[in-house]
Amino acid sequence: MGTTTTGRNGTDDAGKLLLRATLAILLLFHGAAKIAGGIGFIAGMLAKAGMPPALGYLVYVGEVLAPLMILVGIYTRPAALVVAINMVVAVLLVHTGQIFTRNDTGGWALELQGMFLAGALAVALLGAGRYSLGGTAGRFN
C-alpha cells in the first residue's frame, strides 16, 4: 500500500527555480536592450496614448529590477506581479492590434508576451521555493 505525502518533494523547488530563472533571464534580455537603446519608443507610445512619457522609465523596473529579484528569489511574488503588470501594459500599449491575430507559422502573434505573463503569474502563485535568497520561509517568497 502506497503512502501519500502532502509536503513538497525535491522536484518542486527545482521546477520553481527553472521557471524563475527562465522568466528572469529572458526578460533581462529585453531590459538590457532598453538600457542600451533607451526608452524613446516607449515614451513616444505613452505620449501618443495621452500618458506622461516619464512613465516609460518604469520599464526598467519591469524588465530589469523585478527580473533580477525573481532570479535571486527575493520578494519574488511582488516582483512577479510587477512583471505581469508590465506585460499587460506592453500588450495594451504596443500590441493591442495583435491580440486576435496569428503569426506566419500559425501561432498566436503574442506568444512571447503571453508566456511572459503566464510565467509571471505562475511565479507569483508558486513563490520562489527553497533555492532562493529569500528561502521558503520568506514572507513574500
What does this structure look like?
Helix 1 (10-37) runs antiparallel to helix 3, helix 1 packs across helix 5 (111-126) and helix 4 (76-94) runs antiparallel to helix 5. The termini are far apart. The longest helix is centred in the N-terminal third of the chain and has 28 residues, at 10-37. It contains five helices and no strands. It has helices spanning 10-37, 40-48, 58-72, 76-94, 111-126. By secondary structure, it is mostly helical. The chain has one domain (12-126). Helix content is 62%, strand content 0%.
What is the topological layout?
Elements: H1 10-37, H2 40-48, H3 58-72, H4 76-94, H5 111-126
Helix pairs in contact: 1-3, 1-5, 3-4, 4-5
Question: Which overall shape is indicated by the principal axes computed on the Cα atoms?
Answer: globular
Helical fraction equals 55-70%
List low-confidence stretches: 1-6
Mean pLDDT: 90
Note the beta-strand portion. under 5%
The class by helix and strand makeup works out as: mainly alpha
Profile the largest sheet.
none
Number of domains: 1
Name the helix and strand elements from N-terminus to C-terminus, one letter apiece: HHHHH
Spell out the key features of this protein.
141 residues; mainly alpha; 0% strand
What's this, in brief?
The chain is built from five helices and no strands. It has 141 residues and is mainly alpha-helical. Helix 4 packs antiparallel against helix 5.
